TrEMBL record:
Gene3D superfamilies: Leucine-rich Repeat Variant. Residues 29-243 form the Symplekin/Pta1 N-terminal domain. InterPro entries: ARM-like, Symplekin/Pta1_N. PANTHER family: PHOSPHATIDYLINOSITOL 3-AND 4-KINASE FAMILY PROTEIN-RELATED (PTHR47184), SYMPLEKIN (PTHR47184:SF2). This is Symplekin/Pta1 N-terminal domain-containing protein.
Amino acid sequence: MIGEIGSKHTVFIPDMMPSLLDLLNDETPAVARQAVKTGTDLFAKVLQELVIQGLFSSGGIDESLKSSWEWMLKLKSAVSLMAFQPTSNEGVRMLAVKFVEKTVLMHTPDPNITSDPPNQATEDTGFNIAWLRGGHPLLNVGDLAMEASQSLGLLLEQLKSPKIRLLSTSMIIVFVTSLSAIAQRRPSFYGRILPVLLSLDPANTIIKVQIPGAFHALKSAIDACLKCTHSSAEPWRARLLEAQNIINQGDSIAANDSNAGRSAGDTSNRAESLPLTETRT
């Protein structure tokens, strides 16, 4: 109900947010998950409305919208904290990671949308944070970019040792897919994201062939990044192709070992892992 009312009438958001923040920590997992989902939707709604109103309204920004944005900042702090802390409720943490992914995307320029704001706003306008380069009464594009960079750094840290060793397979998949999504939609981050993804060595971390979900999430991420045609992706193409070949070799070895295991009566279905990167001296 909070999400439905807030999405249609942002003026009521300040009155509902204390309850939503409390629900983030509800002991019932389904309730906490829904609170994060609702918060993600409201954050996107308020930020878009704030951008549009600041650019196109001659009367300035409504006080209720300013108040709503202050609550969104509190929400962002709370949910972001949940994304990077171990918890027994991994379903909530996964959604919190997706929230952080959403904020990184919304706080950075979209290369697929013109950086020049339209002459007037419509229902289908959408928005590009790059429109704020000419100024905004409440938002600073430089500050938002810095926040996005810091959030991206926290996401990347989760897939580095020693933190990655504390993650479950499900959480590894979520972090890999979120970083892959950011790389695909914001190719300017390739230089930060791909070195981390390419350093996920199946022999030395828990990204192993015998954990198919995590391994194939990494494979899908590399395949998707190879399809990017943005100029920022070109310098990484050779490295991505190399990683793709190694992963494909790993798939072949896994299949062969699996067949051999069945023939010999071995049901362990394990395969030797292959590194995604070679040590260069």
